[in-house]
Amino acid sequence: MAEIERKEKEIDSSKLFNIRVWEGIQYKFSKDLGIAIKVMSEDGKINTVETNFSEFYQILTSTEKGIRLCEFSIDSIDKESKFVRLYADCVYYCTTTYFYGKKFYIFVGIRDRAADEALVKKLAAEAGVDFKDLYRAYLEQLTFSEAKLINLADLIVDLFNIVIELSVQEYITQMANKQKEEEIAKMSALMEASVIINSTRNLEELLKIIMQSAEKVMQAEASSVFLIDSENNELFFEIATGPKEEEVKKIRLKMGEGIAGWVAYTGEALLVPDVSADPRFAKRVDEQTQFITRSVICVPLKVRNQTIGVVQVLNKIGGASFSKSEIKFLEALASQAAIAIENTNLYEHLEERAEQLNKELKRANVNLSIEKLRIESIVQSMDDGVLAVDRENNIVMLNRVAENTFNVQTADVFGKFVGDFIKIKAIITNFMTVLDAKTTMRNEVMIKMGEREHIFAAVFTPIISQRGEAEGSVAVFRDVTEIKELDKMKSEFLNMVSHELRTPLTPIQAYSELMMVRAVDPEKVKNYADIINKETQRLGALIGDLLDLSRIESGKGLSLMIEEMDFAELLKTVYETYRNASPKHKIILTMPEKSEIIEVDKNKIIQVMTNLLSNAIKYSPEGGEVKIEMTERDKKIFVSVKDRGLGVSKEDIPRIFEKFYRVESDAIKKISGTGIGLPIVKYILELHNGGIEVKSGVNEGSEFIFWLPRIKHK
Ligand code: ADP
After folding, report:
1. Which superfamily is assigned to 365-479 in CATH?
2. Could you tell me if the CB of 645 is within 6 A of ligand 1?
3. pLDDT tens digits, residue range 53-101?
């Protein structure tokens, strides 16, 4: 019984009974044997068309009223006798049988008595048919005893049972096959969906394929996937398939609106067999899209237990409703779709993140290379030499100045041990020391560049990594040779100036004291006074030079008192002053006869001449000729002061015009001087738009030639 009930639930009983097969049997009985059969189920769902081929029946039911006369209902059954007497002497024997819990009435009808003229007359009148015809047909009917009828009815019931059992079996087999096919289709749709999920990353394409397979398997007219827009609390169509795909996509639903909104809100699957009877259905969507929704299955789309949207399938093709088992299938598909969404979201998210990281990395790289370039160019353009080594003291970087200083090329030394190229012990030791001690070190190192020894102030610093380890060290070398020399020169200058000042002071002091304490004869007085005067002049010139230099140095410069004068006259004056200055020397002046008018500051030019002449005398301690020669050429006056003295080496020639510079030879050192005469000479000449040059060699004597612009003789 339980089995029956189960089947009853699953199988629609009205479909159980293969009515056409049974009606065929009824037809055979009626036509060949004149036995009318009718089957009715108690619930009225099954009601076979009674086929009665007896002429009597035909005549009787030829009118509408006659048909009504022949209609019989369950109520008309005489439950006791099981006989239904309907018209004339035609009797229907009624028997019952149960099948799958359903009660069936089976009517078997035959004629079983002699003609009753009055009854037939009454029937003919009621049905509105011709009495004579009906009566003749009535008489021709077979007669059957009731007992035989009961036997016959039993037989027919058996037959019915057999037929019905067979048709049920057939139905079950058919159903089973159909279910199997559906299951297979569902399984393959699910499998297909999972294959697609793994093979495509385009979410829209993916969902579309999933929904198309849902439509196919469930034989639906349309389907859609909604996603929840959590910002607005609305649902939008992510995917819509079917005839109104484009129209549908423009629509958004509020949370809770329509079947989809309801499912999104509740998170529960819903089967609506007829949407017109469901108040939750949103009619506006159909109105907007011109689609007619009849039935819907809608299931939530859940990712990690959270509803992110819904999947919906509409209208079963052919008009039937969706079954509950289809909810399960759609739920399975929805979970596949959810995986797809999650995967693509995840993938897109990862992709986005990767892209973002990539961009950041690129930006950082660009910044880094800009920074590197910036630092490199700073380091390269530094006036100081920079040399960096790694932990093993292999060279990792050196700038151009360092290349010049150490006379190496980066390409040759990169990555190689610093000691292989730089032979200065102090440098190698310092590199090693700062690496070990992790502290900065400063000291001076001497490096030979070309012929000259240069002094470098070097700073060695360890390169400390973020972990606090020494990764290498960097050294910066600043050439301080000039500063050092200047320092040296300054102190020498101070010594010199004090010496130079004292030198004339000593005789001045001595002679003046002598004249004060003793009575000196007038001859000697003049002599002493001459010495004092000469020394005072010397002192004045020296002080004048110092003042000039300080004016030049401070940027004030020297001002010229330009006047027109005969240059030849000027030369003669100077010559006269120095003609007898030194007994060892012979001063010779050579110049053109004619006068040469030029515009100069007379005193300044005398200062130039005095300087050159006194140098010529001073730096030729052995004596000899000092020639002064004046020439004119190219609108210029040239004056040469030539001696046969110590001379100046080729290297020193450009330097003797530098302030405080004095040639460092033993012979020169014996001669007192300050190193400021020639710079002033050069300055004065340049102020006059003139210049000066030197021709000399060691022990070859010197020739100083200066020139001034010439004003043409009128
Ligand atoms: P000072 O003579 O006081 O040292 P100068 O500026 O006049 O300073 O000269 C600079 C240097 O040039 C001198 O120290 C000397 O070495 C060199 N010098 C100048 N004139 C001569 C010269 N006629 N012969 C050789 N050396 C000279």
Report:
1. PAS domain (3.30.450.20)
2. yes
3. 777 888 888 888 888 877 766 666 666 667 766 666 677 778 888 876 7
| Nearby residues of 473 by Cβ (< 8 Å), 6 or more positions away | 388, 389, 431, 434, 435, 460, 461, 462, 463
Do 365-479 and 562-709 fold alike per CATH?
Answer: no
CATH class of 484-553: mainly alpha
User: 189 C-alpha vs ligand 1 centroid, how far in Å?
Assistant: 110
Distance from Cα 616 to the centre of ligand 1, integer Å: 8
Closest C-alpha among 266, 270, 269, 261 to residue 227:
261
Residue minimizing CA distance to atom 21 of ligand 1: 615
Q: Residues 6 or more apart from 615 whose CB is under 8 A from it? A: 677, 678, 704
Query: Higher model confidence: residue 215 or residue 626?
Result: 626
Ligand 1 mutation target, pool 543, 613, 662, most atoms within 8 A of CB: 662
Nearest ligand 1 atom, CA 662 = 14
Angle 652-658-663 (CA atoms, 0-180°, nearest 5)? 35
C-beta of 94 in contact with ligand 1 (< 6 A): no
Cα 525 off chain centre by: 100
> Residue 661 C-alpha to ligand 1 middle, in angstroms?
8
Ordered by start, the domain boundaries in the chain are 2-176, 193-346, 365-479, 484-553, 562-709
The pTM (predicted TM-score) of the whole model is: 0.41
Residue 611 has pLDDT above 60, yes or no: yes
Show Cβ contacts of residue 646 under 8 Å, excluding neighbours closer than 6 positions: 619, 620, 621, 665, 667, 668, 698, 699, 702
- Ligand 1 atom with the shortest distance to the CA of 643: 23
Q: Is the CB of 549 under 6 A from ligand 1?
A: no
What's the 656 CA to ligand 1 centre distance in angstroms? 7
> Looking at the domain that runs over 193-346, which CATH code has it been given?
3.30.450.40
Determine the distance separating the centroid of ligand 1 and the alpha carbon of 626, expressed in angstroms: 15
pLDDT average, residue stretch 457-469: 89
Q: Looking at the predicted structure, is the pLDDT value of residue 3 above 60? A: no
Largest Cα–Cα distance of the chain, in whole Å? 213
The predicted pLDDT at position 351 comes to 64
Report residue 354's pLDDT band, with 50, 70 and 90 as the boundaries: low
CATH of 562-709, one of 3.40.50.40, 2.60.40.10, 3.90.550.10, 3.30.565.10: 3.30.565.10
Give the residue, out of 643, 663, 678, with the most ligand 1 atoms within 8 A of its beta carbon, to mutate for a pocket test. 678
Q: Are 315 and 295 in contact (CB under 8 A)?
A: yes
- Which amino acid residue places its CA nearest to atom 19 of ligand 1? 615
681 lines ligand 1 (CB under 6 A): no
633: CA distance to ligand 1 center in Å? 27
* Nearest CA-CA partner of 407 in 429, 430, 387, 428: 387
Provide the pLDDT for residue 11: 44
Please write the tens of the pLDDT for every residue from 544-597: 888 898 888 888 888 899 999 899 999 999 999 888 888 999 999 999 888 888
15-24, 500-509, 594-603, 658-667: range with lowest mean pLDDT: 15-24
pLDDT exceeding 70 applies to what percent of the chain?
89
3-class state of residue 649 by DSSP: coil
> Helix, strand or coil for residue 115?
coil
Please state the rounded mean pLDDT for residues 376-403.
90
Centre of ligand 1 from the C-alpha of residue 487, in Å: 20
Question: Which of ligand 1's atoms lies nearest the C-alpha of 611?
Answer: 7
CA 176 to chain CA centroid, Å, is 59
Name the residue of 549, 612, 615 whose CB sits within 8 Å of the most ligand 1 atoms, as the mutation to test its pocket: 615
Of 101-105, 109-113, 436-440, 615-619, the least confident: 109-113
